[in-house]
TrEMBL record:
Keywords: Disulfide bond, Membrane, Metal-binding, Sodium, Symport, Transmembrane, Transmembrane helix, Transport. Na(+) binds at residues 103, 106, 110, 337, 369, 434, 437. One of its GO terms (biological process) is amino acid import across plasma membrane. It is found in: Membrane. Pfam families: SNF. One of its GO terms (molecular function) is metal ion binding. This is Transporter.
Length: 661
């Protein structure tokens, strides 16, 4: 072993992984490096740079040491200093991330939209375009969003340090998540109202309730008369019968206002400590719906008429495959049910460890979400088939989607079962857990985007205050949606907040990563993260690469075109109410507001650069220097002094150190 100061002795080194923002630095002499690290350096996976002055741990010395001053070596290049504030959180375990993402993706649409789309679009035949869209659009976009968040360890806005000209994509995600959070918690408020009403016997929307006796007598055998369940929903819950439309909201429904307040309090308490608290809650909220779906399937199988409902759900009509509407419905259902483009997936993945197997998580979460949608259809249509038999009407006349299924058709079907309050409580508890998990993801997307831009807010008191202000603001804005005419505003925001604007945001994310950041570089980033994973993970990147470059953008473009055709060809309506032109224009402005963020922030990025326009574009599409450093994770590099033994002699202190030392 050469000794310190001997001619030809190598210089001291700093060892670190340049790709992993949380990489560990080791300060050591090259001959004292562990064999595993030295081997990695030989393969170009680690970087060695000189450090100054050399630091040595001396455990054995041949006598007193009196050293001479050493010449200064060039200092290593400094990486940008991390932003001030406490370090970023990370998931306590892998299962917390999986359950959080699964709970975020498996939402109300899996229960109240997919079964309806399935029977409307050819039954079992609908699964063919559904899974084609899953493998060509859903999985690639899901993996892209998870990988981008995990590699960059940043929220929807800050992560675009990889391509500053596309920063508007992240701002657009923030706007979409805010609009969705505004109305989505109103659904949880409705769920709370029904959950509280379910503790009555008989159920207030059943024909056994004294107030509904005459209504049910008149509606017997009729398919057009208002049912007791529909009357309860429209008159007592919404109060929509007292409103004439969008311009006549009327007073606030105060029972719903209290339920909405309770919903936001639940969200605040569960999110108060960040992923440390919400990560524990999802162990219940993400698994409970599966238990309820299983129980409802078993109970439904014992009911008379259930087979008629299942047959109606899965009856195949092969001619439907020739309809563009079927393929558009399949693409939109995949797109929205996986939560792509909202920023929630990207934010949750940003709290992962750098070497988490993102491809495995993509397959587990996406396939689990789609299977949940399919099996939820059996729980829905088996009970609806029983209700159709009891009422003596076709199954198609009682089938519905959206709030009409969750708060009218299915509660009415449950009211016909023995022990109906129990089944009603179980069903609305399931809706609550489905909804609150999705809210966790939306709020996490919003807070992560803001906290990464302003790291000083990560201090616990400031973060709690910020979350409180956010929840109060959403609550006050949401009061408009629980007025007597609130359902009209709810439908408007629901339709346009996740319409063409969201598709355009996702299209630019896909094109930006593929052609601006570079698809080869992005695939290499994923390989860096999964380098310790099974070989099949790396082999799948070829398939995803083809999708990102060609199939996924083309299908997104098809979905966007069909969305525009549908938007201008079919007027927006709620029941028999047709929305006025000013209302539709207001909805279009929501989508345009989201899209405008892309050119707006691209212009800002270009103005910050210098040179000609082509020079500015080239600079604005290059990753910032902080993209591949530890600053993204706000974790200071840990320097480890590696112990080893050096024997010094008197000649070491009499000779001037060599210039190569």
């Amino acid at each position: 072993m050469p000794h310190v100061g001997a001619p030809g002795a190598p210089a001291a080194c700093v060892l670190w992984d340049p790709r992993a923002p949380s990489g560990t630095r080791v300060r050591a002499w090259p001959w004292a490096l562990p064999r595993s690290l030295a081997g990695s350096a030989d393969h170009g996976q680690w970087s060695l740079t000189p450090c100054s002055p050399p630091q040595v741990n001396i455990f054995q010395a041949g006598g007193p040491i009196s050293g001479q001053p050493w010449p200064e070596s060039p200092a290593p290049p400094e990486s940008p200093a991390p932003a001030p504030g406490p370090p970023r959180e990370t998931w306590a375990g892998r299962y917390e991330f999986l359950l959080s993402c699964l709970g975020y993706c498996v939402g109300l649409g899996n229960v109240w939209r997919f079964p309806y789309l399935c029977y409307r679009n050819g039954g079992g035949v609908f699964l063919i375009p559904y899974f084609i869209m899953l493998f060509l659009t859903g999985l690639p976009l899901f993996l892209m969003e998870l990988s981008l968040g995990q590699y960059g360890a940043a929220g929807p806005i800050t992560v675009w340090k990889c391509c500053p000209i596309l920063r508007g994509v992240g701002v657009g995600m923030l706007i979409v998540s805010s609009l969705v959070s505004l109305y989505y918690n109103v659904i949880i408020a409705w769920t709370f109202y029904y959950l509280g009403s379910s503790f009555q016997s008989p159920l207030p929307w059943s024909c056994d309730a004294p107030r509904n006796a005459e209504l049910c007598r008149n509606a017997s055998g009729s398919t057009t008369h208002v049912s007791a369940s529909e009357a309860f929903w429209k008159e007592q819950v919404l109060g929509v019968t007292h409103s004439s439309g969008l311009g006549d909201p009327g007073p606030v429904q105060w029972p719903l206002a209290l339920c909405l307040l309770a919903a936001w309090i639940v969200v605040f308490l569960c999110m108060m400590k960040g992923i440390r608290s919400s990560g524990k809650v999802v162990y219940f909220t993400a698994t409970f719906p599966y238990l309820v779906i299983l129980i409802l399937i078993i109970r439904g199988a014992t009911l008379s008429g259930s087979l008629d409902g299942v047959r109606f759900y899965l009856s195949s009509d092969w001619s439907k495959l020739r309809s563009a509407q079927v393929w558009s419905d399949a693409a939109s259902q995949i797109f929205y049910s996986l939560g792509i483009g909202f920023g929630g997936l990207l934010s949750m993945a940003s709290y992962n460890k750098f070497d988490n197997n993102v491809i495995r998580d993509t397959l587990v979460i996406a396939l689990g979400n789609c299977c949940t949608s399919f099996f939820a259809g059996f729980a829905i249509f088996s009970v609806l088939g029983h209700m159709a038999l009891k009422k003596g009407v076709p199954v198609g006349s009682v089938a519905d989607s959206g709030p009409g299924l969750a708060f009218v058709a299915y509660p009415e079907a449950l009211s016909l079962l023995p022990g109906s309050p129990f089944w009603s409580i179980l069903f609305f508890l399931m809706l609550f857990t489905l909804g609150v998990d999705t809210m966790f993801g939306n709020i996490k997307g919003i807070t992560t985007a803001i906290l990464d831009e302003f790291p000083a807010l990560r201090v616990w008191r400031r973060k709690t205050l910020f979350l409180g202000v956010l929840c109060i603001s959403f609550y006050l804005l949401g009061l408009l949606l629980i007025t007597q005419g609130g359902i009209f505003w709810f439908t408007l925001i629901d339709t346009y907040s996740t319409g063409f604007g969201l598709v355009i945001i996702t299209l630019f994310m896909c094109l930006g990563i593929s052609f601006c950041y570079g698809i080869d570089q992005f695939c290499q980033d994923i390989r860096d993260m999964i380098c310790r994973c099974p070989p099949w993970c790396s082999h799948m990147l070829g398939y995803f690469k083809v999708c990102w470059v060609f199939f996924t953008p083309c299908l997104l473009l098809f979905t966007l075109i069909y969305t525009f055709l549908d938007m201008y060809g079919v007027p927006l309506r709620y029941g028999s109410y047709v929305y006025p032109a000013w209302g539709t224009s207001l909805g279009v402005c929501m989508g345009v507001l989201t899209c405008l963020q892309i050119p707006l922030w691209a212009t800002v990025a270009l103005c910050r650069e210098s040179g000609t326009l082509s020079d500015r574009i080239q600079k604005a599409t290059q990753p910032l220097n902080s993209w591949r450093t530890a600053s993204a994770r706000d974790v200071s590099a840990e320097v480890i002094n590696v112990p080893f033994t050096i024997t010094l002699t008197s000649s070491d202190f009499s000779a001037q150190p060599d210039s190569n030392t």
